[in-house]
Write a structure and sequence with these properties.
alpha/beta, 25% strand, 276 residues, two-stranded antiparallel sheet
Length: 276
């Protein structure tokens, strides 16, 4: 990968630093805050710097986002979308594993636990992502989202159980193999888990358990202010970073018709003080 590559948002770069090969960078939030859009814009920034971006999509709404923002971001970052953006629709844990070359099945053992079972059957190389990576010198992977990959096989009642943790760990090991072979790095979105009973919970947690915390050194929470005059502002909260203590650093960004921009405490304070 290229040296000194960082996020187009300087405020987020303070948490993540320069991208490092074979590392994971996670952005999570409650729904409809704008995490997919932020990483979509970052994809154009990376393409403008010469990267091939491999977008793994398990969410809904990509086509609408592409239609609304593609031309703007192409011009903003001078990105060659047709040549550098590689899109894959992955609807489930099984789909994604096939793309990564894993021949697996999910089995329920006698204790009722779901287990990942490796099969002897080989997957054809042309059915995986690897042929598309040939000749690509600088690559980045974006998974939107890690959470939705598990929705089909793991319902909400088992989302936080050990079976999900085991499957998540298996997936991270597969990603490690992918990043090792390509010298790339991966960004991914994740859903937040909110406890509606505990209204005084200080921080929303990563949905699906803590496995993501074990594998990811760079985790940022994207928060949306509740005040109407701040509807275009988002707060970046450093959940995990080598540069800050957990949950100790916060930065502002804002969204307008051109996408995301860095902001400041002063701008956020002015917006907050406005009357609705």
């Amino acid at each position: 990968m290229k040296e000194n590559t960082e996020c187009f948002l300087k405020n987020l770069s303070e948490f993540w630093g320069n991208y490092v090969s074979e590392e994971f960078y996670a952005l999570y939030s409650v729904p409809s805050v704008g995490k997919s859009l932020l990483l979509y814009e970052e994809a154009f920034s990376l393409m403008g710097k010469g990267y091939d971006v491999f977008w793994l999509d398990s969410e809904t709404g990509f086509k609408g986002m592409e239609q609304a923002w593609k031309e703007k971001f192409e011009k903003k970052f001078n990105a060659n979308y047709a040549e550098k953006f590689h899109y894959y629709k992955v609807r489930s844990f099984m789909d994604l594993n096939q793309l990564l070359g894993n021949s697996i099945d999910l089995d329920i053992n006698k204790n009722g636990k779901i287990e990942v079972v490796l099969l002897k059957k080989d997957i054809k190389p042309e059915d995986t992502i690897y042929p598309d990576l040939k000749g690509k010198k600088h690559v980045a992977f974006i998974l939107d989202s890690f959470t939705m990959i598990f929705q089909e096989q793991f319902n909400s009642s088992t989302m936080n159980f050990p079976a999900r943790a085991d499957a998540s760990g298996f997936l991270f090991m597969s990603f490690n193999k992918l990043l090792s072979k390509t010298n790339g790095f991966m960004l991914f979105t994740h859903h937040a888990s909110v406890n509606p009973i505990n209204m005084f919970n200080e921080h929303d947690k990563v949905r699906g358990g803590d496995t993501v915390l074990y594998y990811t050194k760079y985790i940022t929470y994207l928060d949306v202010p509740k005040k109407h005059t701040m509807q275009n502002f988002r707060k970046l909260c450093s959940v995990r970073s080598p540069f800050f203590q957990d949950w100790s650093a916060f930065r502002w960004v804002r969204i307008d018709e051109e996408g995301y921009h860095d902001s400041t405490d002063e701008e956020a304070e002015i917006a907050y003080s406005r009357k609705a």
